[in-house]
Write a structure and sequence with these properties.
This protein is globular. Helices cover 32% and strands 22% of the residues. The longest helix is centred in the C-terminal third of the chain and has 24 residues. It contains 12 helices and 17 strands.
């Protein structure tokens, strides 16, 4: 039972906002639950709160801008509220933030998960805190690793998160999965700053394979595990066999590719070639025909010519990537790419982004078309689509599906995995019909 915070005499309202990756979203959930334990009431960010906390991101200049916008929005909503900024942006931009938002209090990344003790010094909570739910989501994220030592030339993350790998103990991860399983979550996404580096810091070293082998036998029926972004060259040996032998692992690879041109990959400091990625995906598809492949791509890296970009377009097409996250290159201070020349004009970046987006929609349509008439397991997510009246969800191989609301009680299935027959392929999504028998895979 929640109790009023002793330092306020009542339950202060705290509003939280997150910018950026799944790891940030997980950390915000930890902050939320710890503050609730400390006697706070979580309120929408759009409302007037006693305390505003923004968990920032600095992967792109756009993320920086959104973080500052949210802080200014909070300052306008309540002139007496405390405004706290934490996360990756503040690690490098603390002085600039203070100039722009004088009222802001800066909380370093290393202190963000004990933020309640900084707000309320009399509060004493267990330092090894595990989440029990995931607010606003039908799928839950679990952070299993922090830090990255790859030092890609464009990436600021190692400078703000650190180059030391810090993996969570498997027992803590297992307990957190049990908490979320008990709360009714049917899909759990394992995430980290560089997920494939999990366990490298242990003595003796562990790997993502070892962790999955511990998790899978202890899952209750119907719970599936999805892996977030993976670096192609760091995928541990044996992951393919584990994917192909377990129905609880989603047949979905999200690859941090960034380019399909070897010259640009080398300039980026990436440690693989396009042909190596093609062989990797071919090996996975040979054993897992239903495999979904999604990816991150950066366009307009310094020196990227039209020929370089055409190689990336060809690469994406050959891999049959059915969903892309496209990022126009954003120069980040402290990275070696910050001063690289020649710069690609913004208008060219926009044109190349649009070309990739169009290709992605075409490839998604082709991928979905393969499953017309087949039944796939879909996690029902979110409210019904206002345009169609259908209910959204995602298959195990990460196809977005809009489910026909022929069943009056379909809204009650939100958060469940159900069997859906794919009826029609559209660019970017499928239309489907709910089967009578729920799916357990």
């Amino acid at each position: 039972m929640l109790r009023p915070n002793p330092q306020f005499g009542y339950m202060p309202g705290v509003a939280l906002a997150t910018v950026g990756c799944k790891t940030n979203q997980y950390e915000t959930q930890v902050i939320k639950e710890r503050l609730e334990r400390a006697g706070c009431k979580i309120v929408p960010f759009s409302s007037s709160a006693d305390i505003y906390i923004i968990n920032t991101c600095t992967v792109t200049s756009r993320a920086d801008g959104k973080s500052i916008y949210l802080a200014r929005q909070a300052a306008r909503k309540n002139s007496r509220a405390k405004i706290l900024l934490t996360g990756c942006m503040i690690e490098a931009e603390a002085e600039n933030i203070k100039k722009k938002i004088p009222r802001a209090k800066i909380i370093k990344n290393q202190d963000k998960l004990k933020i309640e003790s900084l707000l309320f010094p009399q509060t004493s909570l267990d330092g090894n805190f595990l989440i029990h739910s995931f607010a606003g989501h039908e799928r839950a994220f679990i952070k299993i690793e922090d830090g990255c030592n790859q030092l890609c030339t464009y990436c600021k993350v190692p400078y703000v998160r650190g180059t030391n790998i810090c993996s969570r103990h498997p027992d803590d991860i297992m307990r957190e999965i049990k908490n979320l399983d008990s709360a009714g979550y049917r899909e759990i996404v394992l995430t980290g700053v560089n997920l494939a580096l999990y366990g490298k810091d242990f003595t003796p070293p562990l790997s993502l394979i070892h962790l999955l082998e511990m998790i899978l036998p202890n899952l209750s029926g119907g719970v599936r595990i999805r892996l977030s972004s993976l670096e192609p060259h760091l995928i541990p040996p044996g992951l393919l066999n584990l994917f192909s032998s377990s129905s609880n692992i989603c047949p979905h690879l999200h690859l941090s590719l960034q380019s399909g041109d070897d010259e640009i990959l080398k300039k980026m400091g990436r440690k693989y070639t396009a042909s190596q990625v093609e062989r990797l995906v071919a090996d996975f598809r040979q054993k897992i025909p239903a495999l979904g492949v999604t990816a991150d791509i950066i366009v307009g890296f310094p020196g990227e010519t039209q020929d370089n970009f055409q190689n990336t377009l060809h690469f994406v097409k050959e891999l049959e990537v059915h969903r892309l996250h496209i990022f126009p290159f954003s120069p980040r201070p402290e990275t070696s790419a910050f001063r690289m020349k020649p710069e690609v004009p913004e208008v060219v970046k926009k044109k190349r982004s649009n070309a990739l987006r169009e290709l992605s929609l075409l490839l998604s349509h082709e991928f979905i078309h393969k499953f017309i008439g087949k039944s796939l397991p879909v996690l029902v997510e979110g409210k019904k689509d206002l345009k169609t009246g259908f209910y959204p969800g995602y298959t195990h191989n990460y196809i977005k599906v809009l489910i026909h609301p022929q069943a009056a009680s379909i809204h009650k299935l939100r958060g469940s995995i159900v069997s859906v027959k794919i009826l029609q392929a559209k660019p970017g999504f499928a239309l489907g019909k709910l089967e009578l028998t729920p799916s357990c895979n």
